Automatic annotation (TrEMBL):
This is DUF3034 family protein. Residues 1-23 form the signal peptide. Pfam families: DUF3034. It comes from the Bacteria. Keywords: Signal. It comes from Phenylobacterium conjunctum.
Length: 292
């Protein structure tokens, strides 16, 4: 059945649907709009907060795709920005890079760091699809499964040690499973991450409470309202390693819109809970992605 479906798609150049729930748009005979995900805060293909099993870009199994992104999260007491790039090879391997900045703004003075004190972090990621196809395996419940790793390096080692962090660099490892259900217009993802990161590494790795890896969950669920618009929600659990600096789970509700095959924008309302002693860090998340 899968070979027959792919042959029809290649011959027609579009995905014919019985109803609006199945309506989609093929890009260069490859993926449907938005089903490859957007760029998350760490640069990997996925949702805004979660890493998915999908490989970034609109490449087929015979090509190369890629994107660049810029993301900003405006919080009551902090500002977060991220920019970077990712490359997908034959819909099998993804390589990504993100440069993150966590600006304490006026809050930095209250924390004794100085106004405008900023933590920077580089995130280098790799992901490999090992099983399934999120879009084309519609005759099976088997999801697309990928394994990934992210090396993270923070530039504020002295401050991280002063607040009780054990390291200014670390490696996260994750397994993600993603399924696109065209008949139901649903995109679903579940990811398990092994990590020691505090606030995804922005406040270092490990701490006085715990300095071992722990397993954390990232979940995403979205509805393809149209072939260009995906709305949904995400939840990401976090370790709580630092003594005296409580860390909460993250969540958001989002809308991702594909302007065309080369440009998309994601907007979300994000709730990051308590960050570095300041509670109720909720605000607008906006991300712009350009690619092919």
């Amino acid at each position: 059945m899968r070979k027959t479906a792919c042959a029809l798609i290649a011959a027609l150049g579009v995905l014919e649907a019985a109803d609006a729930a199945q309506a989609g748009e093929l890009v260069n005979g490859g993926k449907l709009l938005l089903t490859g995900g957007v760029s998350n805060v760490e640069g990997a293909g996925g949702g805004g907060l979660a890493s998915w099993a999908t490989i970034t870009g609109y490449e087929t199994r015979d090509g190369i795709g890629g994107n660049v992104h810029a993301t900003k999260v405006d919080l009551p007491d902090y500002d977060f920005t991220s920019y970077g790039a990712a490359v997908g090879w034959r819909d099998r391997v993804e390589l990504s890079y993100a440069r993150q900045a966590f600006d304490t703004g006026a809050t930095g003075a209250k924390l004794g760091l100085g106004a405008g004190f900023t933590f920077h972090q580089d995130v280098i990621g790799a992901k490999v699809r090992v099983l399934g196809d999120a879009v084309y395996d519609q005759d099976s419940w088997l999801p697309q499964v990928a394994v990934g790793a992210q090396f993270k390096k923070n530039d504020r080692g002295a401050v991280i040690r002063a607040i009780g962090g054990k390291d200014d660099s670390g490696v996260d490892v994750y397994v993600a499973a993603t399924k696109v259900l065209l008949n139901q217009s649903l995109v679903l993802d579940g990811t398990v991450r092994a990590t020691k990161a505090n606030q995804t590494g922005l406040l270092g790795f490990g701490g006085g409470k715990k300095d071992d890896y722990s397993l954390q969950f990232e979940g995403s669920a979205g509805v393809l309202v149209t072939k260009r618009l995906l709305i949904g929600a995400e939840y990401r659990t976090k370790p709580d390693n630092l003594a005296g600096l409580k860390e909460d789970d993250w969540m958001d509700v989002f809308a991702a819109y594909a302007i065309n095959k080369n440009l998309s924008i994601t907007a979300a309302y994000a709730d990051l809970g308590t960050v570095a002693t300041f509670k109720d860090q909720r605000g607008l998340y906006v991300s712009l992605q350009a690619g092919f």
